Fold each of these.
Amino acid sequence: MCGVAGIVSPLSTEVVVTQPSPLPDQGAAERLHTSSMGEMVEALRHRGPDGYGTWAAAVGERHIEFGHTRLAILDLSDAAKQPMVDAVSGCVLVYNGEIYNFRELRAELLRDSASQFISSGDTEVILRGYLRWGMSVVRRLRGMFAFAIYDPRVRQLVLARDNFGIKPLYVTEGSGGKFAFASEVRALLSLPWVRRSVDPFGLKGYLAYGSVQEPYTLVSGIRSVPPGHTLTVDVSGDELVVGDPESYWELPEVRSRESKVSVQHLARQIRDGLAESVRLHMISDVPVGVFLSGGIDSSAVIALMAEAAPSEVHALTVSFQEADFDESEIARSVACRYASRHTDIPLTADDLLPLLPEWLESQDQPSADGANAWVISRVCKEAGLTVALSGLGGDELFGGYPTFQRAAMASRAFTTIAMLPNGARRRLAKMIRATWCQSTFVEKLAEWVGSDGSNLSTYLILRAMFLPQACAELLDPWVTSVAPTELHPGVLNKLVKQASASPDTIAAIGRFEMSTYLHNTLLRDSDQMGMAHSLEIRVPFVDRDLANLAAVIPGFIHTKSGPKTLLRAAMGDSLDRAWMNRPKKCFAFPWDHWLRNGLRKEVEPVLMEAGEFPFRPGAVGQYWQRFLQGDKTLNASRMLTLYALVSWIRRHRLEVVQ
Amino acid sequence: MAGGLQQLARCVARALASSAEIRKLGIWGQMDPRSTEPFIERVVQTYAHPGVDLDVRTFGGSRVELSSAIAATSLRGSYDRIMYLLLNQAVLSLLPGHPPYSVWEIGWELMTGPLPWWKCRALRHADVLLSISRNTTAVASLHNPQLPAARVVHLCTEPPLFSKTPLHDPVAAELYDPARRQHSVLIVGNMYRGMLYKGHQQLIAAWPQVVGGCPSAELWIASGGDGQLELEAQARMLPRHVAKKIRFLGYLDQQALHDRYRQCRVFAMPSTGEGFGLVFVEAARYGIPCIGGKYDAVKEIVVHNETGLLVEQHPHDLALACLRLLNDDRLAKRLGNAGRQRYLENFRFCHFRDRLLRALDLDST
C-alpha cells in the first residue's frame, strides 16, 4: 500500500531539478525529478511514510517521470523499493497494492529461467510478469492494485487498476501533450497546469448518490481509470496518444445450472473460497489486525483468520453510548472466541468533534460515509498495526442489504402499476408528492411510480441521496444544464447490460451494488481513511476468485431464507445463531443526534455560509434550517453529504468557470 | 416527414426503384400533402430501372386513410412486401392478412428504455429488421432483449434531387486547407428543450478554455429550436471576451450551410444519442475533421485519431480536442483528408443502395 504518481510532459515546459535525496535511507545518490513531481510526492506522503523514490527520463521531445511513496508491508528491504527498474529492458514500474497470489506467480516465473528475482515481495512479480506476459499479466493478478509501467522498448506507458477498483488511480490530460496520473486527486491538483474548476458531472453525481460517481471526480479534467481496466499512453510519436480504457475482466454471468445444486454444497464452496481469500489476505511481514463490528461479515473474517493463524488475531471495535447503534456486546462475544487480543474504543460526539476537521482534511474526495473507517483506522494505527482486514463487500456479494429485498418487492409490485399508461402513472406520482405527508420514503415512492419500474431505475431511486428535484433546487442551473445526467454513459451502459444479463432481481441488484455503492463509496472511503493513517485495509470479500464463485449463483439462492442465506450456511458451524440472526445494523454513527447537538456548532456555520456557486444562493442554508425543524425529507445522511461537499470545495479552493 | 427522415425516405425509394427485381414499387407518404406526389415521382424516377411501375400516394397526415389503404392492400394482395420507415406505422402490421414486411429501427424511444408491447411485436414479427447503425440495434436490444438482431444499413449523403450522383463529387477535398481557414468550430444540430443531447451546452461551457488556448477561436452554432434561448443565456454568462466568440447562426439554407462548411476549420457535435449522425458524413464530405461523441453511432462514421476525434461529452475533453485541431494544421489536415476518403469509400448513395438491397436479399447489380 503506497502512493504512485507520474508525469509526461514536453521537455521544453519542465525544468529538471537534480538534488540529493533528503532522506537518510535513500543513500547519497542523486534523485532526478521536476519540482512538479516533488509536489506530487509530497502530497502522497501519508500513503507511504516509510520512504519515497523517483525516476525520470527524456524520451524524444518528452520528459517522463515516476514517483512513489512507500508503506512497507512485504519485503521490507531496499530490494523492493520503487520505482523499480529492470536493468535489461529498462522497464520501470510504480505500484500500489498487494498481490495475494504473488508466491504462486513467482514460482511460475522462476520456472522460466529468464526470470531472475532480486527481491522477495510482490512488486517485482508484477514487473517480471509484465516482461514475461505483457499486459495480460493483469489477468493473472489476484489482489488489489494500481500500477504504471513505462516500457522504453515500445515507448508506451501502461496503467492498470484491479478488478474492483480497491486501489485508486486517477489520470488527467492537459493541452500541449501533457499527461499525469496519481493515487489521489490532491496529488494531481498540485500540478500547475491542472485547472482547479468544479466538474459539473462529478458534482451532480455526488449529490445524486452521496459519493462522487467514477470515472468523474469533483475536478474537471481529472478522471479515474475504471476498475478492471488498463490504459495505454503512446509517447512514441509526435503526438501524445492517450488510448481509451480497455476492460480485462468483468463479473461472470449467472449460471442457471447452479440453481440445481444444493444450498449445502454451494455453502461449502463459499466457505472454502472465503477461507482461502482470508488466508491469502493475511500474508504480511508486519502485524495484521481485523475490524470487528459484530456483524456477520466481520465475524466470518475473524473466525477464518483464527482458523488460519489463531495466535495472530488482533480485533478492534468502536462502541457507542447510544444503544441503537452499539454492537460491542456481540463484538466482545466474537472476540472472546476468536481473537488473541481485542481493543474496544468507546466513542462519543465530544470525542469526535475535535477530530472532525482532521477527518474532513483526509478526504481526497468528499464523503459522508467514511467517518467510521477513519476512526477505526486511527485506533488500529495507534495500536501499532499497519494492516487490517475488513468485512466490507459481504453484503454486496451475498445479498445482505435491505435494497435487495426492497427491489424484489418493488419488482413484483410494479407489474400492477405498469398496467397504467405512462401519463396516468406520472399523474399518480405527482399526486403522491402533493398529497401525502412528506418524507424520504414518500419522495422515493413517487419517483418510483413515475419511473419505468425496471430493476435499474428502482435501484437508483433506492440508493439516491438527493432526487432530481432536490438537485435542481440546490445547484446552480448552469451545473444541471451542462451535466444532464448523474452517471457516466459508459457506467450507465454497463449497468443496463448487467440488468439485461441478470435473470433475477437479486442478481441484478448485487451487480449494481458492486458497480456503484461498493465501488464509489465503501472502497474509496476505505482506501482514503486507511491511508490517512498509513494503514492498509484489506477486503477479503472483495476478491476476484470469491466473486467468480459467488456471482454465478442465481440471486434468489443467496436470499432464499433471508439475507445472506449462503453466507450464513457457509459459516453456520463457526458463528453462533444469536450472532447471525439479530437484525443487521450498519457500522454507523448516531449522526442525527450528533448533528442536532454536539456537532451543530461546527456544521451550522459551514452550511449557512454556502451561498456561492455551484449552489443556488441560500439553498444549502435553507435545507439545514428545514432539517433542524424536523422536515422528514431531510435526514442526517443528506445533511452530512452537503457538509462534506461544501467543506471540500472550500478547502481545495475550486474556482467557478461557467 | 421532416428533415432527415424525408431524406432517408427518398434514398430508400430511389434505391428500391433501381432494383431490377422490383416490378412494382409503392411509395406512400402518410404526412406528405397530396400536392407533392409529382415531385416524389420525379425524384424517384432518376434511379428507377425501366421496368418498374411506381405507385406514389400521399395521405396528407391521415392515418385513417393510410390504414385503410394498407388493409385493402393486405386483402387484395397488391404487394408482396411492405417496408415501414416509422415504428408507429409498423403497428399496422397487426392488421389481418398483412403481407411480410420489413421495418427500420429509428426513433429516440428505442434508445431510452423498453418499448410498449405492440411496438415490440411489430419489430419482432418483421421479416427483415433494418437499422441505421450497429449502435442503434445494440441499444434497442439492451432495452428490449426479445428483439432479434437487425441488419445494419448505414446511411449516405443524398444525391441531387433530380439527377444521379455525379461520378466526381463536386465538393473537392483540396478545398480543405486548415491554414487558410478561420479558427472556428461549427456545430449543426437541433436545439429542442428537453432533448439537448447533442452537446451544445458542453461546447459552450468549453469555450473559455478553448479561447484560453486559441484566442481567436469562434464557435458557430447553426440550426434552431425552442432550447436556443437557454443556450444563448448560458453563453451570455461567460466572460465578455469569450461570449462574443460564440455565434448563433439560426437555421441555414443549403447554400448558407455549404458556405459554412467551406469556411469552418472543425466540425463538432459531441452527441450522446445519435442514431446514425448523417451530419458527420456531410462534414466529412467537405474534408473537415470532426469531433464526435464516444457513446453513440458516430463511432461507426468517425474513426478516432484517424478521421476525427471521439471524446466524452464534457467541457474539458471538448476543449482539448478543439484546441488540438485548431492549433495543429498537420493534424487537422490529416484527419480531414482521411475523413473525406472514408466518405468517398463508404457513405455515398451507391454504397447505401448496395447495402440496402443486400439487406433485403435483392440483387444489387
Amino acid sequence: MWRALFDWVDSRLQIAPVLAFLRHKQVPVHRHFYWYYLGGITLFLFAIQVATGILLLLYYKPTAEAAFESVQYIITKVPFGWLVRSTHSWAANLMIFTAFLHLFSVFFLKSYRPPREMTWMSGMVLLFLAMGFGFSGYLLPWNELAFFATKVGTDITGAVPLVGGFMKTFLRGGEDVTGTTLTRFFGIHVAVLPMIFTSLLVAHLLMVQRQGMSTPFTSEGHTVPTPSREMPFFPNFFLREAVLWLGTLALLLYLSIFLPWELGVKVDPFASAPAGIRPEWFFTFMSQSLKYIPGTVLGMDGEVLGILGFGAGGAFLLLVPFLDWWAGKGRRHPFFTWAGIGIIAFMLTMITLAYVKPY
Amino acid sequence: MRVPDPCVGPGFTPGRGGRGAIRAVPAAPILAAAVVLGLLVAGREARALDQPAGEKPDTCVACHQAVGGPMAKPLEDRKADVHATKGVSCADCHGGDPSRMDMDSMKVKGFVGRPSRRDVPRLCARCHSDGARMRQTNPALRTDQFAQYQTSIHGKRLAGGDTKVAVCTDCHGVHSILPANHVQSRVHPVRVADTCGRCHGDAEYMKAYKIPTDQLALYRESVHGELLLKRQDLAAPTCSKCHGNHGAFPPEVTSIAGVCGQCHVINKDLFLESRHHTVFDRMKLPECVTCHSNHKIVRTSDDMVGVGEKGICIRCHAAGSPGYKAADQMGKMIAGLSAAVHKGEAKLAEAERAGMEVSDAKYEFQNARVALIKARNEVHVFAPDRLNKVVGPGIELAEKGFRAGQEALEELGYRKQWSLIPLAAILAVVVGLVLQIRRMEGGRG
Amino acid sequence: MEGRTTGGTEARSAPGRRGFIELILGGGLLTLLGSMLYSVVRYVIPPKVADAGLASVVAGKVKDFALNSGKIFRFGNRPGILVRTQGGEFRAFSAICTHLNCTVQYRSDLEHIWCACHNGHFDLVGKNIAGPPPRPLDPLEVVVRGEDVVVSKKA
C-alpha cells in the first residue's frame, strides 16, 4: 500500500531521485568525525523550540499588563505547562551553546574553505539570528531581570555609530522600554525571526547536502583523500544521531524537573534597577568586557570602541573563508588557529567573570 | 558711644550774652549739628537694618543698634521672628514711644522695659488671649493658651511665686519666635523634647522639685523617640502629646488609657473593656504605663505576654493564681500562632526556592499574618477565650499555607517520579538503537 | 530501521536477538511517544480555571453596590477595594494598607476607608488621613461598562 502511494506521488513530483540521493548519502569517518553531530543537535534543539514555542503561544499574552501573569498561569495552572516552559527556556540556552560549539569545530576543522564559503556565512548569520531569538525571547515573561537587561542591551545598541539611535528606537518602539517594546519583541520572536531563520536554515542544509561533508587536513597538510572510510547517512549515521537526540531530550526533561526555570518578579518600571542585572550568558562576553573599557580611549567613547571591536570580531569570523587564503591551499596558517583560540579564551574569561566577579 | 544730650550740659543758655554766652553761642550750633548728624547716622543705620517692609524706623531700634553689643542682640534675633514679620514692634510688647528721642522714648506710661519672669505670661496674653487682636494677623490661632497655662503645674507654681518654672519665653524664645510648624522653631514637634529637656533633664536645676530628670534620656531610647527624632515621623508623640503643652500636667492615673488611646485606639478600647481597667484604677496603677512604661516605651515583643522570663504578667500574678493561668494560656496562644505563621512562611519559601510557583498560596497567607497582628492587639482585653477567637482562625490559615507549600513540594516529587517513565523509555530506545547499530555493522558500533 | 548494512561482516541476525531489539525499540518508542502525546493533549485542553486576564477585572455588577458601601475583590495576586460613595460614584484602590499590609475595609459609618489592625484611616481619594499609615493607598482605574463595574490598573 505504501508502494502504491509512493508511486502515485512520485509520478507527479519525481521525488525518487531525492530519495535515492538520501539513500546514498555518505558521511566520512575519521578522527574528527564526532564533531559532525553538533549541527544536527542544534537543529534538533531548534525543532524543540518551535514545538514548545507553538504550545506556549496557545496561552501566552504579549501585553505588559498580562504577560507575566500569563506565564505564571502556564506554569501553575496548565497541565505540563511547567514542562513546556522550562524546556523552552533550557533548550534555547542549549541550542546557542551547541551552535557555538558547532561554529568553533567548523572553524578549527577549516570546513569554511572553498567551496563551502556560503555555507559558513549562512551559518554565521544563523548564529546572529539565534542570539536575536534569545534576546527577544528573554523579555517576553516581562520580569524584572529581563526588563532591565533589555534596557541595558538596547542602550548598548544605541551606541553603535550612525545607525545606533535609529536601531534603539526601532527595537524599543519608542524612547523607553515599555509594553510597546514587549509587543514588538514578541512579533520579532514568533514571526520575523522564524521566517528569516527557517529560510536561511533550509538554504544552509541544502548547501550541506549538495556539497557533502567537508573533511579536515591531515597532519601533512593534505586533505584526507576521499573516501578512505565512509558511513551511510541512512541508517547508520542517523541512528547514532538519534541516540544523541534522545539523550538531549532526556537532559531537557531532567533539567525541567530538577532545575526548573525561574519566573522571577513582575516588572515595576518605577522601581530602581535591582543589583545583579545581567543579560543571558551568551551576551555576557560582550556586556562584561564593556565594563572594563575606560570611558574614553584616545578621544573616542569607550563603549563605541567596544562595539566596534565586537563588530570587527564578527566581521572577521564572517569573512574568514576569504581571509584564510591558506586554508584553500590546504595549509594551516597559525594566525587563524591562534585567533580562534584567542576568541574562545576571551569569551570564556568574560563569561566566567560575569558570573563570579561582575563588578 | 553716648549721644550727647542737647538739653543738658554746659554752655547752653539761650539768649544770654556775656562771657558764657560767647563761649556757648558757637557751641550750641556745633552741638546741634553733632546731634543732628548723630541722629542722621543712627537713622541711616536704622534704615540699613533688616527691618521688615512697612515698619517705620524707630528709635528703639536705632538706639539699641547704635549702642551695639548685648543691647543689639534682640535686633539680630528679630531677623527670624514671626512677630517682626507681622509688624509687631518693640513698643507693642515693651511699651514706650518709638517716635520720641532716645531716653524720652522710655519715659512713657505703660513702659514695661524688660519684664520680670512672673509677668511674662500676662504680657504675652495681652495679645494672644485677645481674639479681636489676633484676628487681625492670624485668625485661626487659638487664644486660650494663657488660660490653659494657668491650669498647668508651671502656671500654678508661677502664681505661687516660683519663677524657676517655665514661662512663655523659655519654650518659645524671646525675640526669635517661630511658628510651631516651622522646622527650626523650638516648639516644632521634632524639637519639643529637647526644649522640655532643657530644664527637666537638668538634674541640678530640678534638684528642689524631687521629680525624676531622666525623662528625656529615656524618651530618646524609646520607640517613639526613635521614630520622631531619627526618622522624623511626625505621627510619633512627643512630650506635649501626652502631657499637654500650655496646660502641661502629668495625666491622671485613670486617664492614661485615654491619652495613649489618642493613637492606640484599638488597644485602648480593648483595655477599657478588660478587667485590668477597673482593677488598675482601683489600685491606682497607671493603666498602660504599668506594663509599657511611660517614657522609655520600647517595641513590644511576643514574650511580654505569658509566664516566661520576659513575661510582664508575672510581675503581679503569682504562680498558680487564676491570673497566672490566664497569662500562661494567652502566652502560649500567641507563641503558637507566631510559630505557625513562621512555619507556614518557611514552607512556602522552601517550595518557591525549589522552583514551584506558589504565589496564590502566598496571597492567601497574608491573612494569617494579619491574624497575628490582630491577636497582638486582642491581648489587651486580657481574656483567653476572646484571644482564642482571633488566634484559632489564624492558626488555621497558617496551617493552610503550610499545607499548600507541602503540596507544592509533593507535586515536585510526583514530577520526579513520573518522569522516570519517559526517561526509562528514552533509555530503552537508546539501548535498542545501539544494539541495532551494532547488529547492522557487525559489532563495530 | 531494517538493515541496509554496509561494509563489515553481517552479524548473526538471529531472529531472537532481532526480536529483542525490535521489542525494546518499539516498546520504548511507543512509551516515549505516548507520554509526549499525553502531555501535549493535556496541555492544549484548556484548564477549568481561566487565566485571571490581568488587564482588568469585573469587580461586580452596578446594582450589587448600595450607596455608601465597599467591597474587597481580588485583583491579580492582591486584594483591591471598590467603594461606592454616598454620591453614587465608584472608586477603587489597592486594599493593602500602607502601614503593615493588612487588608483595609470600608466603614459606612465613617464614610471612608479604615484599617482594623492599627486604626489607620484613608479618605475617599485614598489619602492617609489618620493613624500610622505613611502613604496613601494605590489608586485603581474604575469604568462602568453597562452593568459591569470594571477595575483596571491605573494607566
